[in-house]
Amino acid sequence: MSPADAFGPVQGGSVYRAGLHPWSRYVALGDSFTEGVGDPEPRSPGGLRGWADRVAEELSVGHEDFAYANLAVRGLLLHQILDQQVGPAMALKPDLVTLNGGGNDLIFRRSDPDKLAARLDAGVELLASTGATVVLFAGPDWGATPVLGRIRGKVAIFNENLRIIAPRHDALIADLWALRELTHPLMWDPDRLHFSPLGQHTIAMMVLDTLNVPHSLEPMRPKELPERSWREAKADDILWAREHLFPWVLQRLKQRISEEERPMAKRPDAGPVFGAGMPPGTDIKAHPNR
After folding, report:
1. Counting CB atoms within 10 angstroms of each CB, which of 22, 135, 225, 244 has the fewest?
2. Which CATH code, of 3.40.50.11240, 1.10.287.370, 3.40.50.1110, 3.40.630.30, is assigned to 19-217+230-280?
3. DSSP output for 114-127
4. Rounded to whole angstroms, what are the CA distances from 27 to 86, 129, 166, 241?
5. Mind listing the pLDDT tens digit of every residue in the chain (290 residues)?
6. Which residues pair with 136 in a beta bridge?
């Protein structure tokens, strides 16, 4: 039984009680999704905020000794995440770990979802052996997105594998596929590959709910969009593919980044969520949609 299960249900539903959870050391692993690409915030380390920072902010409330590290680096394939981040994560001795990976493999390498899942299983086994609570992510539904909709079946197969892996290691699943709010266009960055600040906020809520942690985040609804004709929608799709998708795909397929040139993790060491330039109660906390 995971700590989240042992903790039990929150009484009163909407009542927010700060500090009501068992974790004190959180490490986030993954790629651009966990790094927070699509959610710029100059006051955050690395210039990005993202869902993981939001989750850490909430978990830190009422826990003076709470520590957070984010080892995620954009563009990594699953084997790179496991090879480069699992060891350092275990060295930080977390009691809570979130792990995402495989999206770049499925989108840009057309990898076999079953083989990816087998590799992920081994990584989760290592992380779970520490006694930490492990949270995995079922991939989002790109069915309505041109081109990316072609991998919908592979994402679904990968997700079903996760549902076998998770109980084997007493891990939790944060289900992006089931989070239907993410089908709204404003939940996504203009590149349609990463989530907007609104999407990141919505995902953070879902992760905290998955952990059964009471929190202060409130649902935020996107504004209504004007109806578009078929021609207008098609023109937008073509513009998106030319300006975002194809350049990103070419970059991922051709780029060979040396270890010296690869971006560093924005929070490689476990430490307080709020640094000297970002104390609790600043605007970054008060305005989660930013």
Report:
1. 225
2. 3.40.50.1110
3. HHHHHHHHHHHHHH
4. 10, 15, 18, 34
5. 444 443 333 333 345 677 789 999 999 999 999 999 999 999 999 899 999 999 999 999 999 999 999 999 999 999 999 999 999 999 999 999 999 999 999 988 889 999 999 999 999 999 999 999 999 999 999 877 666 678 899 999 999 999 999 999 999 999 999 999 998 988 988 887 899 999 999 999 999 999 999 999 999 887 675 665 645 455 555 555 555 555 665 665 555 544 445 678 999 999 999 864 444 444 344 444 44
6. 99, 173
**C-alpha to C-alpha distance for 194 and 282, rounded to whole angstroms:** 26
**φ, ψ for residue 68 (rounded to 5)?**
-140, 135
As given in the structure block, the two tokens for residue 175 are 């289900």
Per DSSP, the three-state class of 97 is strand
Which has the closest alpha carbon to 13: 286, 192, 183, 215? 215
- Sketch the domain layout of the chain as residue ranges: 19-217+230-280
At 110, list the tokens.
Answer: 């057309």
- Asked if 75 contacts 252 with a C-beta cutoff of 8 angstroms, the reply is yes
Distance from C-alpha of 67 to C-alpha of 268, rounded to nearest angstrom: 12
Q: In angstroms, rounded to a whole number, what is the distance separating the alpha carbons of residues 159 and 197?
A: 24
Rounded distance between C-alpha atoms, residue 163 and residue 173, angstroms: 8
Q: Which of 28, 1, 54 is nearest to 273 (CA)?
A: 54
- Residue 29: helix, strand or coil by DSSP? strand
CB-based contacts of 6-11 (< 8 A; 24+ apart in sequence): 7/212, 8/212, 9/212, 10/212, 10/214
Q: Rounded to the nearest 5°, which phi and psi values hold at 70?
A: -130, 110
- Locate 278 and state its tokens: 């970002």
